[in-house]
Amino acid sequence: MIRTKILGLGSYVPDRVVKNEEIAFLNDQHVRQETQQSETTDEWIQRRTGITERRYVPNESGLATSDLALQASKRALLDANLEPQDIDCIILGTLSPDLHFPGTAVFLQDKLGIASRGCACFDIRQQCSGFVYGLQMADAFIRTGMYKRILLVGAELHSHSLDFTTRGRDVMILFGDGAGAMVLGPMESDDPKSGVMYTSAHADGSGAMSLYLKIFDIAKLPYLQYDPRNREENQPMYPYMDGKRVFLNAVRGMVMSTNTALEKTGLTWDDINWFVPHQANLRINEKVAEVAKIPPEKILNSIQFYGNTTAATVPLTIDHWRQQGKVKRGDRILSSVFGSGFTWGATIFTL
Ligand code: UT7
Questions:
Q1: Is 133 helix (H, G, I), strand (E, B) or coil?
Q2: Contact by Cβ (8 Å): 6, 351
Q3: Cα 321 to middle of ligand 1, angstroms
């Protein structure tokens, strides 16, 4: 039977490193000021989140989310030994799209130089769960024979939409820019444990207003009702998060989906090489590991270096540790995610 194989993996983060010590001194142009712009400290950020640094696109680089996606895609294609022309479907997860419409996948398609070939382009707007949602779609498409070479990308450019004042510090310190990509294709195998073995995707829309970025309200005329330069009014430009509620639900959703993934596949932690949780807060991942009784030596995190890159965290973390020589081809990975929506899910696959 046809099963889904991971043909290639790649990731990309911009060169600019923003350390915790620096972030409090950045203004909204990302330029370091002499005086502190927001009340936060390296000690607070590390203790509450585990983050020490994150990456931002360089100031005035003109880069968009699709440019980060492009770099990660090129690396995944190289890893798969394929050309952009081989791709017949793009699935892109992001919460920081290039524009409100059209979707970002079409910009990526054009930047890959394959627009004239007309392949299918999908945007997944499931935030931190975007990669697992996208993987479930890709797996279904490949098993049914709909597409043969799918480029699945999670890409985020968060740094341009963060509030660099004390008002926005809870969210601002978490997010970073980056992208991760996989190329997926079919293989003939009767081994149910091969390739993409399991995916699950869930949502609870009653949590939607616990983590959102409004920017506009389409129910109103005019649909933008603030002056972006007026600090008192411009909150809709920035993400809002009920941190504690998101934290609790993240632990619950990730524990539940991790345990269900093992139950449904009949696997135990002895069968899994690595647990790769979404990277939102190291304390969330520590709690998930404690409750789900995950062997600590099997857990891979990268939030220390990149912060939360939402839809990109899973492929970025795997690729980071592959580059360090820890993760190898043939390793079996269990990943669980949770994000705005609320959305959550899990997957088990062999790299
Ligand atoms: O990707 C999926 C979505 N995101 C998440 O899963 C994130 C989930 N939530 C979190 O990670 C945590 O809730 C945060 C890191 C956002 C906040 O950590 P916390 O331990 O829940 O802190 P808190 O919200 O209870 O805030 C404690 C204090 C507050 O001050 P008061 O009211 O006690 O005086 C905050 O104003 O810490 C303050 N605070 C900060 N202080 C210094 C909040 N952000 C900061 C900051 N620096 N950056």
A1: helix
A2: yes
A3: 28
Give the Cα-Cα-Cα angle 333, 337, 343 (nearest 5 degrees): 145
CATH for the 2-188 domain, from 3.40.47.10, 3.40.50.300, 1.10.10.10, 3.40.50.1220: 3.40.47.10
Could you identify the atom of ligand 1 that is nearest to the CA of residue 339? 2
Encoded tokens for 221: 């005329």
CATH number of this structure's domain 196-211+240-350: 3.40.47.10
* Tens of pLDDT, residues 146-193: 999 999 999 999 999 999 999 999 999 999 999 999 999 999 999 989
Ligand 1 atom closest to the CA of 172, numbered from 1: 48
Q: Which residue has the tokens 């590991």?
A: 289
Check: CB of residue 348 under 8 Å from CB of residue 197: yes
pTM for this structure? 0.97
- DSSP conformation class of 116: G
The yes-or-no answer on residue 259 being catalytic is no
